[in-house]
Recover the amino acids of this structure.
């Protein structure tokens, strides 16, 4: 039985390539435990959604425009 040299191990492809290619996603929903004002109507709500315009506003369920 022939021993493998250290160089052989170093030349092997590294594992875990898939873990580094996870796409970054922007969360569409925001949860604020103490509540936060809707950017449209100003109502204080726990759960707000990112407006579809992409302007970063967070609106309540009533103001959210569902595509
Ligand atoms: Zn609202």
């Amino acid at each position: 039985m022939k021993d493998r040299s250290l160089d052989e191990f170093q030349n092997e492809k590294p594992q875990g390539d898939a873990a580094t290619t996870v796409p970054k996603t922007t969360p569409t929903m925001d949860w604020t435990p103490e509540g936060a004002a809707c950017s449209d109507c100003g109502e204080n709500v726990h759960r707000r959604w990112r407006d579809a315009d992409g302007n970063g506003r967070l609106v309540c369920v009533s103001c959210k425009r569902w595509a």
The mean pLDDT is 80.
